[in-house]
Design a protein that fits this description.
about 450 residues; FAD/NAD(P)-binding domain
Length: about 450
């Protein structure tokens, strides 16, 4: 029992959930797991709904993942791409956030079990996204550097700068070569953008900050198992991106699968080796499901929930999945929608509209994905874009990429700070965030 006064005009007693201090309510309770693109788009659309909304996330901030690579390569500070979840929804009525790990779901009692307690729900929305997929390779999982969240991006930044500092004082040619070799596995948008950013770092930073290191001493290798980079995009974008990368000095290795990494040597299936102290794994993701929903609803190979056209998980009547964790098969997308931001954002908005309609006794409307295009940036004035049947490459695509990413950043301050950093970097050929704030130490 907690004493509660409103406007100092009257008093009342409100019952709270004892384990996590959330008010009991007679309104429907909507519980959301995950504060990524899908989760925040869903809750934003629920601003005036007559329901209680509770969000669980292991972090107290939303991460703009498309720009993580700029944090890892010293282009941006993490607060430029992260935004407090409580601040996003501070104007929402009856919204509650709890920073917690969700340990499981009891579908019989409609209860979510977390590290801070248990909470019942009327509607449950799972928007947990993806995690790094190592395809069962323990040596790569143990020694490589993933990049799925802000702490991991900061680890890469620290390791990169630490290795360059070590190389600057080393008089052993083999050690210097290993310290200055950067290998990236996976030539999707993340891998391509990382490789381009490292190549720009070599060009603009080394000669000014490290006069005893020749530019050619730092090598960037991009390893891809398929026959082209950016395989989800058009052949135009793929070829253009490859030419951009090679012109910047990145060594692209196609049809090459990584077999193992021991912390020093990257070995490939075809017998090649790369001596590298920095190996970044960007070769795949898998869904991040929650314990409690299994059986035919969970496709174990992809770790994604099978959902219908309303994002309702197969076999349940009040549990939904959004974004990367949801697998919605349609005639246009027989393998499900791509695991990128736009499907997550659009699904979140449509589900919010549908639940609002359902609470008013109206029928739901099926989700239909509108593909707004795909973009990837390689470097200064170098990007590629596929917009419907149109394909762009070069400075125009780069400007378009900047405008779109600034628009989708959460928070006015983040947009201003990011734009200022990009302008400063463009004018001065500089990356201002090259600080080793938290030195990285391998486990």
């Amino acid at each position: 029992m907690v004493f509660y006064a409103k406007g100092f005009t009257y008093c009342n007693f409100i019952l709270y959930n004892s384990s996590m201090n959330i008010p009991n309510t007679e309104k429907p309770r909507i519980v959301v797991i995950g504060g990524g693109f899908a989760g925040i788009s869903f809750i934003r659309k629920l601003k005036n709904i007559q329901a209680q909304v509770v969000l669980f996330d292991r972090n107290n901030y939303h991460t703009f993942q498309p720009l993580l690579y700029q944090v890892s390569t010293a282009g941006l500070e993490p607060d430029s791409i992260a935004y407090p979840l409580r601040k996003i929804f501070r104007k929402h009525d009856d919204f509650h956030f709890r920073m917690a790990e969700v340990e499981g779901i009891d579908t019989e009692s409609n209860t979510v079990k977390t590290t801070v307690g248990e909470l019942s729900y009327d509607y449950l929305v799972i928007a947990t996204g993806t995690r790094t997929n190592y395809f069962g390779n323990t040596s790569i999982e143990t020694h490589s550097m993933p990049m799925k969240n802000v702490p991991q991006a900061l680890n890469i930044r620290s390791l990169m700068l630490q290795n360059i500092e070590k190389a600057d004082i080393s008089d052993d040619p083999e050690e210097r070569k290993c310290l200055l070799n950067f290998v990236i596995a996976g030539a999707g948008p993340t891998g391509v953008e990382l490789a381009g950013a490292l190549a720009e770092f070599r060009k603009s930073i080394l000669k000014n900050d490290y006069p005893f290191i020749e530019r050619e001493d730092m090598q960037v290798h991009l390893v891809e198992g398929s026959e082209r980079v950016l395989s989800p995009m058009s052949s135009f974008a793929s070829e253009k991106a490859k030419r951009f990368l090679e012109a910047m000095g990145v060594k692209v290795h196609l049809n090459t699968l990584v077999k193992s990494y021991d912390g020093k040597t990257v070995s490939t299936v075809d017998g090649r080796t790369f001596e590298a102290a920095t190996f970044i794994w960007a070769a795949g993701v898998t869904g991040a499901p929650v314990k409690g929903i299994n059986g035919s609803a969970l496709l174990e190979k992809q770790n994604r929930y099978k959902v219908n056209e309303f994002n309702l998980i197969e076999g349940y009547n009040n549990i939904y999945a959004l974004g990367d964790i949801a697998l919605m098969k349609t005639s246009a997308y027989p393998s499900g929608h791509p695991q990128v931001a736009q499907p997550a954002i659009q699904q979140g908005r449509r589900l919010a509209t549908n639940i609002t309609r359902a609470l008013k006794g109206k029928e739901m409307k099926p989700f239909e994905y509108r593909d707004k295009g795909t973009m990837a940036t390689i470097g200064r004035n170098k990007a590629v874009a596929d917009i419907k049947k149109m394909h762009f490459g070069g400075a125009f695509a780069w400007l378009l990429w900047m405008v779109v990413h600034l628009f989708f950043l959460v928070g006015f301050r983040n947009r201003v700070v990011t734009f200022f950093n990009w302008t400063y970097n463009y004018i001065n050929y500089d990356k201002a965030a090259r600080l080793i704030i938290r030195p990285f130490r391998r486990p």
